[in-house]
Amino acid sequence: MASTSALGLPKPLALPLCQSDLAKINAYLSPLTPEEILRWGIEYLPNLYQTTAFGLTGLVAIDMLSKITTSPPPLIFLDTLYHFQETYELVEEVKSRYGAPVHVYKPEGCETVRDFEAKFGEKHWVVDEANYDFVVKVEPAQRAYETFHVQSIITGRRASQGGARASLQPLEVDSKGLLKLNPLFAWNFPLVEWYIKENNVPRNKLLDQGYRSVGDWHSTSKVAEGQDERAGRWAGKEKTECGLHEDYFKMKAKAKAQAGSQNLLRFSIRS
Ligand SMILES: Nc1ncnc2c1ncn2[C@@H]1O[C@H](COP(=O)(O)OS(=O)(=O)O)[C@@H](OP(=O)(O)O)[C@H]1O
């Protein structure tokens, strides 16, 4: 197998990455194991962080990284303020088990749900879903990336999760030029579960109660045996993504447009 150094790429990669280099890199990374992809990421990706909600896939990457390097990429956790208590407990467990620094980013100007509701009102996810996604995930992520001059991240997405992820590649470049490495892009749910058990990796206690993918408590439900692993996320809705991995500029425009129409609606109700 050719090595990436044979592709003539500098270490770390020079940005912006052109489409032909991206295609070459993905052809190189595609047959590799997650550990090999992570090793490559550590060597080649500039200012690398791991963005994680401590889902099973991200936890596998955290565990693998702890065995590959003594200085794993720092973690970024976007605290929407609406995570389950079990998720917050898992964050603490991961911190003490792996000792990795976790940078927690919350909606701007909000420390607590009370602050959030004072700013956006109750059930903002019902009133204005696009704006909710923007203020709890998209904006805090950008703030974190700008603060630390992040140029590359590791994500916990997999192609087998389907939907927009079905054609996921090992490496992507987003609309802001951020490099996204998806080391487990080719793994399926049973393989991820197997790794977690085999390596005694800490996991969300909700997984023992019938949950398979865990996000905010108000949009996450249990799934029945045989159902898709993400069927419990925004169940009954067409929505399958929180916006974090969508085009930043489109998400910002959508949040503004929807906020505008909500204001109009409120205005027409009042008048
Ligand atoms: N809150 C938060 N903080 C930091 N990073 C996050 C967050 N939500 C999603 N992610 C990143 O997206 C990966 C997939 O998450 P999910 O499958 O839960 O879907 S979704 O993004 O919420 O739609 C997820 O993978 P994991 O590391 O397995 O959690 C992360 O890389």
From TrEMBL:
Coiled coil: none
Domain Phosphoadenosine phosphosulphate reductase, first and last residues per copy: 48-221
InterPro entries, per database record: PAPS/APS_Rdtase (IPR004511), PAPS_reduct_dom (IPR002500), PAPS_reductase_CysH (IPR011800), Rossmann-like_a/b/a_fold (IPR014729)
GO CC annotation: cytoplasm
Keywords: Oxidoreductase
A biological process from GO: sulfate assimilation, phosphoadenylyl sulfate reduction by phosphoadenylyl-sulfate reductase (thioredoxin)
Pfam annotation, one family: PAPS_reduct
Biological pathway: Sulfur metabolism; hydrogen sulfide biosynthesis; sulfite from sulfate
Keyword Disulfide bond: no
Entry keyword Oxidoreductase: yes
GO molecular function, one term: phosphoadenylyl-sulfate reductase (thioredoxin) activity
Family note: Belongs to the PAPS reductase family. CysH subfamily.
Protein name: Phosphoadenosine phosphosulphate reductase domain-containing protein
Species annotation: Hypholoma sublateritium (strain FD-334 SS-4)
